[in-house]
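Predict the assembly for these two chains.
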Amino acid sequence: MHLLQVEIGKSVRVVSFEGGHKLEHKLRQLGLLPGNCARILRHAPLGGPVMVEVDGRAIAIGRGIASKIHVEEEAAPCGSL
Amino acid sequence: MRFALIGQPNCGKSTLFNQVSGYKADTGNFPGTTLTFTKSKVRVFSEIVELVDLPGAYSLAGSNPAEREVLHYLTFNAVDVVINVLDASHLAQGLNLTLELMELGRPLVVALNMMDEAARVGLEIDGPKLEELLGVKVLPLIASRGRGVRTVFTTAMLVARGGITPERPQYHPQIEKAIRLIASNLNGRARESPLAPELMAIKLLEGNAQLLARVEGYSPQARPLVEQAQKDILETQGQPAIWIFNAARHEKAAQLTKQVVAQGEKRRSKRDYLDEILLHRFWGYVVLAIILWLFFQIVYGVGSLLEGPLLESFDKLAVWLASLIGPGSFWADVLTGVVQGIAGGVAIVLPYLAPFLVGLSILEDVGYLPRLAFLVDALMSRLGLHGKAIVPFILGYGCNVPAVMSTRLLEERRDRFIAATMATLVPCAARLAVVFGLVAFYLGPQLALGIYLFNLLVIALTGHILSRFLPERSPGLILEIPVYRLPTWKAVAHKSWFRVREFLVEAWPLLILGSVLLAIFDRLDLARWLNAVVRPLTWVLDLPSQVGVPLIFGIFRKELSLVMLRQALGVVDFAEALSPIQMITFTVFVVFYIPCLATLATLRRELGRRDMIIISAITVVIALLAALLARGVAIIFL
């Protein structure tokens, strides 16, 4: 399952991502690498980006990238730190 | 003494910079507003210090031009102390950069900014403990209210005078060995660089190609050493060196955060709920439309209220002054030219420009622009770009120069080219003056709005066609959405004044000069020749031949097209010389054709001479087609 398939309000843990070290770098800066937890805040309509909360900050991720981030649902919400 | 401000995008560096330097840097609630560095002189302990505000960078690895700029600057300029500004409400991410800065081998001070914001989300940060763990001075700061600013600078001065450099974090033994080996083999100019050789070794191991090319020039043994070390590390650790460095810093930053931050109760405020409406899948767009419509109404309302009476008084003044000297004499004509140039600035441009810039500043500081990027990403991706490309686009309505500069936010060169082309087609405030002063004033605001919508359509079409020709895929949007901030009136006033001043200082004298030149041209009958040169163009568009000179001068400054038009046609009231259809054709052409000189220079700097020429050619073709189309539509409906 990837980031776009998650319902709003659910928490997920990143499992893996498809991409080179440029994407790795970007995701690391935002704290969204395998093992990290994120909560889905909202989807923009008409194929727009998905907005997630990571470590208390909101990040918009375009569909192209979001579909490359594989996640699994977490039962408990992400810890705030 | 030289101090450098370094921090991640949107951490408030520029706000701090402006607190101490008067207004110099462009701040906004958008990650990456500072794209080049700004300098200012500041007095600390009665010593004059050069303060440099470097662009926001998540790291020094340099994945975009703004980040490369930071490392480049530090390599060639000795900095006496680095002031690392951190967003306290996002400590873990910020510390990643701090750990990297500790490797520079330069004195370092950490300023924890936005302590108020951190408290709001319920974070309690133990500053002294962080100071102890890092071995670097850590100071609290609320830059937007000016709290803690003085202490940050006096402490920075003491650290700089002491020349205290922090101890850098240690990596895996194998990596440490590689760092030492490469560092000891750097010689010549590398030794003269203000940066620690170990830092250079780390950046080389991370695979910084530009740095390697530069270092190779004087340390030819560097490349084989670095490549061998990278290979060894990949073999034994199973990961490229850059991943290991990043992971180590990330882990360390997370660890530090755990030790110094306690999560208290989170206070959700009204601001948190604002996004429920502003980013709503339906209401978000309704609000967006309302905001843009209000914006337009206010700019038009204020501008048109002032334009008429102001123009009238200036015309009376010109007639009165000419009568003093003797109407028809050479000097009377020159004087009339001067007055008309002044009037062009005061009566035609400023009434629209000033309210526009104030409005833009407010939208920027509130933090609405990144949300706009979120809302329009789907639309922009149809044009082959992503949501961030909306920024050059919006800035373009103020002035195309910062708009073209802001294309640096985009990662790919192809995206930058398309975004820059689209940005130059956006009617800037100068062209806004033409649209409002001519079409809105004579034909009504609905038609002006129509021209803006038509312009949007043409830009969208251009973007679509260009991305077809350059089919590479855009990397997609990843953008942090900052919290809303209440703009302070001081910041908004400063920023608007900063931009208005640009017009007053750079454009206005040119306006007056152009106006005088035209008066002289007219007298010597030179205008006829220039008009003849562009007659084929004006003929195709069915415009009077006198329009040629204003169009040529419009390349210098877009306002000149309108200001000089009055003179060229020899009328006070445009309606006497131009039909409504001609007004529309002229305005549409002016909106699209060749960007002004300043924009051309910026295009050349950002994209190179070739792309500058290509973009200019594209705009002429588009202008001609769009003007003909508008003329056709106008003939049918008017």
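The first helix of chain A runs from residue 21 to 29. Chain A has one domain: 3-74.
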